[in-house]
Amino acid sequence: MGRPRCQYKIDCCPGYSYFGPDDSCCNGSIEISAVEIECLRLKNIKNLDQTKAAKTMGVSQSTFQRVLTSAYKKVSEALVEGKELRIIS
Length: 89
What we know:
Helix content is 46%, strand content 13%. It is α+β, with helices and mostly antiparallel strands. The protein has a 3-stranded mixed sheet. The mean pLDDT is 86.
């Protein structure tokens, strides 16, 4: 039996479902969740500290940190390796 799943509060969803290189030789794709996108938005666009961002999403600061770290890794990999970034629900 695993841990119970968090009920994230997400206030913004992008109007698109993927982002990628503008050429025909894509090096694969990476899936990033709407929750990870929301973490990036709150931290980097709204400039909230992790404690306030976590409270906004209704999760603990450690959960927010874990999801944010995952999002940073995925975005970095997509940019550095020329992969498409697909947003999933």
